[in-house]
Amino acid sequence: MAECHPVGFQWVMEAKARGAKVFHVDPRFTRTSAMADRYLPIRAGSDIVLLGALINHVLDNGLDFRAYVLAYTNAATIVSEDFRDTEDLDGLFSGWDPDTATYAPRSWAYAATGEQPPAEHAEGGRRHAEAAGPETYGAGGAAAHPSPRTDPTLTHPRCVYQILKRHFARYTPELVERLCGIPGAAFAELAEAVTANSGRERTTAWVYSVGWTQHTVGAQYIRTAAILQLLLGNVGRPGGGIMALRGHASIQGSTDIPTLFNILPGYLAMPHAHRHEDLEHYLEREGGETGFWGNRRSYLVSLLKAWWGEAATEDNDYCFGHLPRLTGDHGHYTTVMGQIDGTVKGYFVIGENPAVGSSGGRAQRLGLANLDWLVVRDLTLVETATFWRDGPELETGEMRTEDIGTEVFFLPAASHVEKEGTFTNTQRLLQWREKALDPPGDCRSDLWFYYHLGRLVRRRLSDDEIDRPPRELTWDYPVHGAHREPSAEAVLREINGVGPDGRALSSSTQLRPDGSTACGCWIYCGVYADEVNQAARRRPRGEQDVVAPEWGWAWPANRRILYNRASADPEGRPWSERKAYVWWDAERGEWTGHDVPDCEIGKPPDYLPPEGARAQDALAGTDPFIMQSDGKGWLYAPSGLADGPMPAHYEPHESPVANLLYGQRANPARRTYDRPESPYNRPGPLFPYVLTTYRLTEHHTAGGMSRPLAYLAELQPELFCEMDPRLAARLGLGNGDWATIVTSRTVLEARVLVTGRMRPLRVEGRVIHQIGLPYHWGWGGGGLVTGDVVNDLTPLVLDPNVYIQEGKAMTCDVRPGRRPRGRAMLDLLETYRHG
Amino acid sequence: MPGSGWLARWPVIRQLKGEDPRGSAARSARTDALRPRTERADTVARSVCPYCAVGCGQLVYVEDGRVTQIEGDPDSPISRGRLCPKGSASKQLVTHPGRQTRVLYRRPHGTEWEPLDLDAAMEMIADRVVRTRRETWEQTCEGKVVRRTMGIAGLGGATLDNEENYLMKKLYTALGAIQIENQARI
After folding, report:
1. Spatial separation of the C-alpha atoms in residues A724 and A736, rounded to whole Å
2. In a domain, A590, yes or no
3. B80 touches chain A (CB under 8 A)
4. Looking at beta carbons, which residues of chain A come within 8 Å of B132?
5. Are residues B49 and B77 in the same domain?
6. Structural domain that includes position B114
7. How far does chain A reach from its first CA to its final CA, in angstroms?
8. Distance between CA A627 and CA A821 in Å, rounded?
9. Whether A221 contacts A667, CB under 8 Å
10. Does B155 contact A711 at a Cβ distance shorter than 8 Å?
11. Over the stretch A696-713, which tens digit does the pLDDT of each residue have?
12. Helix (H, G, I), strand (E, B) or coil at A88
């Protein structure tokens, strides 16, 4: 955090100054480790063992926050008797189909209630992932029965609490020592600190950076942390939570208003051809009827009205049929395979540099070289724009410029100070940027590019049926200035939404299912309340309290801590004075406090839903997790995940260590590509070391925004490889020498940094060396400094829920000296692939 | 020894005479006349750092149509005026000489970049979108209506504004392009 989010880390230091104890768990010793009370080196890819052992410690010693757990989680819920755990099936959950390598999740469901059969449409498995199932849970959960059978004594053998207890029983401190390389005493200190610092009076926060997501079990890493935090009562309370430190200025916004294949704005699923024939079908199958997600008809119909305006009517399903349909995984890496195979002809790359920044860079460049046309928009000539004249495949003879048929358009982009608009930061806060000046030359905003491209494309449309969706699209935005820049405020207002009177809406609770409201992203409804750009608010911090509600605007409804109903006890009183945040004011008959309460403001704590209630009316006054269909925090996920209802430790796809827990070595549901462009390392002695990748303070991702800057290039001028002294000695390498790093994907060279920051770990009785590489360099990109592309080393193997690549844990070999060039490099690679 | 005049005001003399050597004695008339360039700015825009997701406030100073300084915004409850090495260097991000400001075009099998007018580039790109969409249109797949093109894909960075992402998703979806992805997946 101190390395990659330095200014955010000031708040950790503030907390430390006030007595907080800071632990840092990371394969690499960093500036964060230097400032922490304790640093725990860990083997990359073993985090579920550590977190699972903490869960086991809590359950085994009865250290959970019982009042919170009983009222706010599904600990008491009884699960179907058909469910079988990984403990029963040696690393598989029930429902595994080896032929399709997917789970049928029906047996994971809650037990039938008598009047209610088990979920017919249990969510999970491959199609569910394809149809954005897991990603819609950015805003809410999968469907589950709203009032399942429970055992409040938590003793029923099939209640979630007992299932968890059995599931994690073998996640012991001894296992942590054997698999993670963390000694027992260090684990004991961590376990003691985390549990002692949780309860009525205290809360513990977990912070992760998105390296946690880059594993074949990435979603389950975060699930494990969520289970621990729910057991300890650390969710929805000040000082608690699981904080994702996302890595880009508006990467949260890019998910909320997604340019992602399987979601629409506001985490609504893109329709899937085999799941959603029409609007009714879609609404039936996407999420439960209870909880706020039960209003999804209002959210979706309002989105369709924002996009197709007058053309969207009740008679035509509000143009639901205008939405194209998914039939599978159409994610980034599958799209690249489509480029190599020739199905993808045209490609827009906007402020992104996949030739350096994506895993398996060679496959990326083979894809780029097989396009008909490519449009790149960026501040500088990034490698993705220039691969045809200077890419590494030219040096090896795998490509010749004259043979590459790709037509390339490079359009220069406006910088962040040359346009106005909002970023959404990692705490869901939208901040409006004022424009400082006009962009130079041909530089334009991406808003300008897409608005005018849409205008020009629409001018070319016919009366054909296939042209109806773009023809009927609402595409009138006011423009201003010599460049005819579209108004970003007008777009933000469309995102916010308008009511039947044409005025800006104030809250998503005003959205209607009958087409009388229009709203481009329901979770952002309220950002333009009262016709005011709320994201532009800048009341100075000295003039408001620590919650600072008048600086920018946070979705949803300007709430700064999600699920904050849980900061009060079931009766609506703060758990303690020290941790008071929002509470029920019985005299005024409403919720109040330091933040916008994350519940219905007038719903009393003793409210019980009547039989047959739907949407939010079906949630009790004690239910804090209002997007979930049962209002509960899920210790066990009865639906929604592609790889199991609970996390289980699996080794990375490439690992030098066996799985000591199960016969099933790696995540059985992980997504692999059997492609010659990006082969996997063979198990065995050829690739004896663990490789992990990371960022440096002075550079940014693929380097397009940092390598061309003189200050930053001077601070970190060259790619290097961090290596412990014992390994360096064994390889005969000294500090500053050249080393060659090899995986089945490529061979690259880096200067050696011999350092105690990467520690060899004793794992399973032997020493495992880990090496670390920052991934900011490339061969060009307008960079003042250049270096080999580290992401070329990484394998194309993905988490099955969200299709993110395993870029943080793999195997490699290291050889002394510089890498061979040209044909000789391919020959060396061949010996590792087949030799 | 000079009692007054330029020599007496010379900092070296004042430092030698025992006046606080690193404080008041070090000040010269020129030092006193220096003003920060932020004071001369014609406008100050309230902005946000474009690097990581913390969202530090930035103040962007513009003088004579050029960015002269970017600093942390002390009013921000997130950053309290601080910026990291990247945020502090962001004036270079917007002013560095390697920034590309003209459209470039590489024809199929071409060996060099060629200049191209921006409006012409926009028309050419629109032509290609319409043509590729027509040529690769899929009305049905596996017996189901899909109304899409698998011929056009997009990948965006995560420094795009929300408003930009919104227009991108809206346009691509209306055109039937579904392979629309973002750094958020990566």
Report:
1. 13
2. no
3. yes
4. 345-346, 372-373
5. yes
6. 100-129
7. 41
8. 55
9. no
10. no
11. 999 999 999 999 999 999
12. helix
Whether residue B43 is found in the same domain as residue B30: no
Cα–Cα dist A380/A703, whole Å: 11
pLDDT digits (tens, 9 = 90+) for A8-56: 999 999 999 999 999 999 999 999 999 999 999 999 999 999 999 999 9
What amino acid is encoded at A672 in this protein? T
Distance to chain A for B38, nearest Cα, Å: 14
Average pLDDT value for residue range A1-6: 96
Nearest chain A Cα distance for residue B25, angstroms:
33
Q: Which of B95, B118, B145 is the last residue of a domain?
A: B95
| pLDDT band at A142; cut points 50, 70, 90 | low
Q: Retrieve residue A202's tokens.
A: 């205290």
CB atoms within 10 A of CB B101: 12
Residue B131 contacts A, CB cutoff 8 Å = no
With respect to residue A597, please indicate whether it lies within any of the assigned structural domains.
Answer: no
Phi/psi of residue A30, each to 5°?
-125, -175
Q: Give the C-alpha distances (Å, rounded to integers) separating A358 from A249, A361, A507, B71, B130.
A: 18, 6, 38, 32, 28
What is the domain count for chain A? Answer: 1
State the Cα–Cα distance between residues B17 and A332, nearest whole angstrom. Answer: 71
Claim: this prediction has a pTM higher than 0.90:
yes
* Structure confidence at residue A276 as a pLDDT band (50, 70, 90): confident
Alpha carbon A48 to chain centroid, angstroms: 17
Residue A367 and residue A344: Cα distance in Å, rounded? 9
Cβ contacts of A162 within 8 Å, gap of 6 or more? A154, A155, A156
Can you name the residues that pair with A568 across neighbouring β-strands? A574
Strands A373-378 and A407-412: parallel
Stretch (H or E) spanning A479: strand A479-480
How far does B8 lie from chain A, in Å, by closest CA? Answer: 40
Domain for residue A119, yes or no?
no
Which among B90, B97, B49, B121 is positioned nearest to A380, based on CA atoms? B97
Alpha carbons B168 and A453: distance in angstroms, whole number: 10
pLDDT at A129: 53
Same domain for B43 and B84?
Answer: yes
Verify that B107 and B91 share a domain, yes or no: no
Q: Name the percent of chain A lying above pLDDT 70.
A: 96
List of E strands, A340-415: 346-350, 373-378, 407-412
What the block records as the tokens of A89 is: 């099936």
Read off the tokens for A117: 């059969």
Whole-number Å distance between alpha carbons of A75 and A231: 9
Confidence band, pLDDT 50/70/90 cuts, at residue B7: confident
Interface of A with B in 443-472 (CB under 8 A): 443-447, 450-454, 456-457, 459-461, 466, 469-470
- For tokens 């999968």, name the residue: A142
The two structure tokens encoding residue B90 = 């962001």
Answer whether residue A554 shows pLDDT above 70. yes
Question: Does any CB of chain A come closer than 8 Å to the CB of residue B95?
Answer: no
pLDDT band at A146 (very low <50, low <70, confident <90, very high): confident
CATH number, domain with residue A797: 2.40.40.20
Strand-pairing partners, residue A800, are none
pLDDT of residue A762: 86
State CA A155 to chain mean position distance: 35
Name the residue among B20, B80, B38 with its Cα closest to residue B55.
B80
Asked if A806 contacts A795 with a C-beta cutoff of 8 angstroms, the reply is yes
CA angle in degrees (0–180, nearest 5) for B26-B32-B38: 120
Q: In this model, does residue A115 exceed pLDDT 60?
A: no
- Average pLDDT, stretch A163-192? 97
